[in-house]
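User: Modeling request: complex.
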Amino acid sequence: MTTESTVTPQVMQQQRDRQAQQDRLRRWLTEAPAYALLGAFSLSAILALIWVLLMSLRPVKELFTYGAWALPKEWTLQNYVDAWREMRVGQYFFNTVLYSVVGTVGSVFLAACTAYILARVKFPGRNFIYYLFLISLMIPGYLAMVPRYFLMKNLGLVDTYLVIFLIAWTGGLSFNLFLLINFFETLPTELEESALIDGANAWQIFWDIMLPLARPGLATVAIFMFMGQWNEFMTPLIYLRDASKYPLALGLQILSFGSTYSATYTKLFAGMMLFIIPILVIYLVFKRQITEGLTVGALKG
Amino acid sequence: MLQRELRKLVIPFLGPSLALYLVIGLWPNLEAFYWALTEYDGLAPIQTYVGLENFSTMLADRRWWGAVNNTIYFAIGTIITLLPISLLFAILIMSVRRGREFFKTTIYIPSILSVVIVAFLWVFLLDSTIGLFNPALKALGLTEPLKQLLGVNSLNWLGHPKLAKPTIVLIQLWQGLGFYTLLFLAGLAKIPGELLDAARIDGAAGWGLFRHITWPLLFPTTQTVLLLLIINGVQIFTLVYALSGGGISPLTQVMATYIYRTAFTDRLFGYATALSVFLMAVVMALTIVSRELTKREAIEM
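Assistant: Request completed. Predicted assembly structure:
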């Protein structure tokens, strides 16, 4: 008390200001390297995308006269038009949409039905079936590569759209089940019971009551399935022969190395942009579900 | 009552998914163990049983062991770079005051892109004429010093025997960093704030705080990350395949690309399956070993 009375309020204020300034400086000095590192990496991700965009918007001849660091002198959408028409990118794009949508809808529906049964219905052999489904989470995908290929070949399914759908529907099944069973188990039984008393049948209980409640879980599964299907490479590589059925991943990969003509570079970048944009939009829209779902997903390991 | 009504759904809901899963998902895995003991060119009516011959061929197959070597290189290279750097990035993101959301969002962008896009992007970025990287080094006068430092005669990042493998590890680092950083962030978020506050009051800070509080509490996450890195590392396929345009050279050949090639290019389907049985055994063994090793370490804490 005595010391405080000898110090005037102004001096105290000055001291506090100086202290705050020092704190700010120290904080800035400790945080600067963090910002530099994080900033550098973030910048590399953003610049990579911007570079692809810029490359796709310039005439190809500029590339060789001014080099990659120069901004486009002339802006054009011609690369997109050419890629879409001449390089089958339009077709690849529609195929990718088809595989992603049918693959996602089918596998989410299949997993939801199965998960509901395994989570909410008691019947003999339930645990056995549950573990049977979980087995394939532990098996690396390459083991069945050859036998599965010949299974499909013998069924006459090689080089069809159906084979891509079938593999999408079964491929993610175990993992999606694992997530959705946990989700269904958290829902209260009272709702099912009161729906039954109100005269709902089993299908209505599932479709009208439980499925809407499971929407957050289904959304997470659907987003991950869609992103996985959009980028899927190995299944089409193994099963498709006819280029008209290729998705973007396979089509662009073959185009990029198949063509030795450097005149197609900028068109390839246009194709890449068309491949990136949808997935980027989905990511930015569903960012929260994706980052949260990823954590749940990793627990399976 | 409810259960009796719901049981009506068991057959229609479980039937289709179980049938698909057993036939397409599980059965080919079992069949693989028989295929591994056969020889088949894809044309003959049936496979010929050859016993363990495929495995003795494998032991003498130099190209296969080269691929195994490369796989180990990539897996270890990725683990020792990705694990510490993603942990560091997670801690840095937690420590900064501003822009956390921005860093979290941008850092994950490379992880959502198709591996084909990433491969493509880097092939162009590292291209000596139209890429960004080498012209920039040249402009900065770093080309010659870097060549001397690395002991190479050209900065052909993806083609030079000395540079190709480290470059692939760096590309994997760039693509995977966001994913593993988000996993570590989720792990860090689970550490109770009061615990860290209590440790700070007791005088713990900086390295001490990390070493004695954060690291032990984060250990389950680290375990998961390590396991995922091992499992994904051993099975690396698309990046190597896409970077080399499918024409994989012995320089970067990995187990999965070699298996794919043996099956679908060389048409040695029995032998390829024997190799995939070996790959499966490796994945399982590594999973068990890493679980056991990290379990012991966790107790010591």
